[in-house]
Design brief:
The chain is an alpha/beta fold and 389 residues long. It is 32% helix and 20% strand. It has a domain of 262 residues: Peroxisomal Thiolase, Chain A, domain 1.
Length: 389
């Protein structure tokens, strides 16, 4: 099956850090300290010198300013390499990679490093400016205020509503969560994350995602819902913000050929779609639906791997049922519920995971298709399809 156009951009390497809880393993690492070793490892994998990189595109949602420049300098890239930061909340890292691909497709660059990084542990605080000298300042989060006041974040309420509309029980969500943990544990024991995760220190702890611990179904079922008494979402069956970084190296066809045509990923198509904020949990469904509509006539049965950056088990279950997806190909080695949700890095992590599944471990097979998808705060969904080269 051929793509809609002759691809000129190739993802030739992809790496990420282990994800750490806020205040956890990455608690003292700023974005540049998190990102630089990942970029160095990705460039080494690709056989490309840092001095050859022409642009760095970084997805980030919490830092402010243009941390991409800090990342580029910390990674030892040339001073004349341009650097740009993209912020579309959780979609930032995927958007950064898509921007790099389009830049190379337009012959504006030959070698671009792109991905995402989030250091919530060291990110600056956001404080609302008081309206008068009598009002105290207060902290504001990344999520926009909900239409109705509630102690439960809008994103969780949206997933709760999604579970109710799709009649997804608490038991089904907990079972999905347990299965995701088991998949991640199986992959870890089989060393499937080796070559993907870059340990920032030579310790066993930094070779695994910090939250990917051995949960039991009893532990998961014992958690208290966020919205009692009838709520179904809990701290166990939802994804939590984490620190982490993920980057890929994107090159032109000429550079790919110069490198000896290594196994790579090529973009087939991408799509973004918005939904009403109160149903934001459905955004990935809307984006994937739009992507398949754009690829009219595409044989979905050839898709061998799917990575969804789910915010909750309810969202993942609704995604699969709405789109008729085989449970065996989606998040086959665990999802965001297990490893954590690294905001601006999340979309890039999905691409790195897809690279591992389709390229890193199946380098001799060049006929694979895979997708990545996720939603962002406020009701925006993103999806992209890639094929092996």
């Amino acid at each position: 099956m051929s793509t809609a156009h002759e691809a000129n951009a190739y993802i030739v390497s992809a790496r990420r850090s282990a994800l750490g809880r806020i205040g956890g393993m990455h608690r003292n690492r700023r974005v540049e300290a998190l990102a630089a070793p990942i970029i160095a490892a990705a460039l080494e994998d690709a056989g490309i010198a840092a001095g050859e990189v022409q642009e760095v595109v970084v997805g980030n949602a919490s830092q402010g300013g243009n941390p991409a420049r800090l990342v580029a300098l910390a990674a030892g890239l040339p001073f004349n390499a341009t650097a740009m930061t993209i912020d579309r909340e959780s979609g930032s890292g995927l958007d950064a990679i898509l921007h790099a691909i389009r830049s190379i497709d337009r012959n504006e660059a030959d070698i671009v490093v792109a991905g995402g990084v989030e250091s919530l542990s060291t990110a600056p605080w956001r404080i609302a400016k008081p309206k008068s000298v009598y009002q105290l300042p207060h902290f504001i989060g990344l999520e926009p205020p909900a239409a109705s006041p509630s102690d439960v974040p809008q994103s969780l309420l949206a997933s709760e509503d999604l579970a109710e509309r799709h009649q997804i029980s608490r038991a089904a969500q907990d079972a999905f969560t347990m299965n995701s943990h088991l998949r991640a544990e199986t992959a870890r024991e089989a060393k499937r994350f080796h070559g993907e995760i870059v340990p920032l220190r030579a310790t066993r702890e930094e070779m695994r995602d910090e939250s990917a611990i051995g949960a039991t179904l009893d532990d998961i079922e014992a958690e208290t819902p966020f919205a009692p008494p009838d709520g179904t979402l809990t701290p166990a069956n939802t994804a939590h913000p984490h620190d982490g970084a993920a980057f890929v190296v994107v090159v032109s066809k000429a550079v790919w050929e110069r490198l000896g045509k290594p196994p790579a990923l090529k973009l087939v198509a991408s799509a973004a779609e918005g939904v009403a904020p109160e149903i934001e949990a459905e955004a990935p469904i809307a984006a994937m639906t739009k992507l398949y509509r754009r690829l009219n006539g595409f044989d979905r049965s050839v898709v061998r791997a799917m990575e969804l950056g789910e915010t909750s088990a309810a969202q993942a279950i609704a995604f699969m049922s709405s789109l008729g997806i085989d449970d065996g190909i989606m998040n086959a080695e665990g999802g965001s519920i297990v490893r954590g949700h690294a905001l601006g890095a999340s979309g890039a992590i999905l691409v790195v995971r897809l690279f591992s599944r389709l390229v890193r471990r199946q380098a001799s097979t060049r006929d694979g298709y895979g997708t990545v998808s996720l939603g962002t705060i406020g009701g925006l969904g993103l999806a992209a399809m890639f094929e092996t080269a």
